[in-house]
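Inverse folding, one chain.
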């Protein structure tokens, strides 16, 4: 393999989006595609699927590790808070940045997310332009500014 090929693989990053709303997931995917060609997005709709993905179990065997996790709080089955707790208890995901992406502006939700180990709390935007801006900032911060641990 050429060093250029290895460099292009290293410059890619993988995001696991956990959101039960297909419209919100599509919006995130569209915004992500607009701001970065380097991103690979994996989407699951439930907390149970997210935990299977992180554990590389079931249909997610050999799916590959992700660099960051974007988590909605309002999920069927396990809530986003329950998923966050389990992610922080799991050695495979404990060190992964978790960004809560929620429509909840409740201070109790924001505080609880940080107390439980979220690295960021981002409000879902009402307009596509604002959503695009937030996703672009997220990408620039997590993939162009900070250093993430090697997989």
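Residues assigned per position:
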């Amino acid at each position: 393999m050429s060093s250029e090929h290895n460099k292009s693989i290293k410059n890619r990053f993988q995001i696991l989006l956990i959101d039960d709303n297909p419209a919100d997931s599509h919006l995130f995917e569209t915004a992500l595609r607009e701001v970065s060609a380097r991103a690979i997005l994996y989407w699951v709709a439930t907390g149970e699927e997210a935990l299977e993905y992180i554990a590389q179990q079931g249909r997610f065997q050999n799916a590959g590790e992700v660099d960051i996790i974007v988590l909605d709080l309002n999920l069927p089955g396990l809530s986003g808070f329950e998923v966050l707790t389990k992610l922080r208890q799991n050695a495979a995901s404990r060190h992964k940045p978790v960004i809560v992406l929620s429509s909840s502006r409740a201070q109790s939700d924001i505080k609880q997310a940080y107390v439980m180990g979220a690295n960021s709390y981002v409000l879902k935007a009402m307009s596509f332009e604002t959503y695009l801006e937030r996703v672009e900032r997220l990408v620039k911060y997590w993939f162009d500014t900070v250093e993430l641990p090697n997989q």
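The first strand starts at residue 13 and ends at 18. The radius of gyration is 15 Å.
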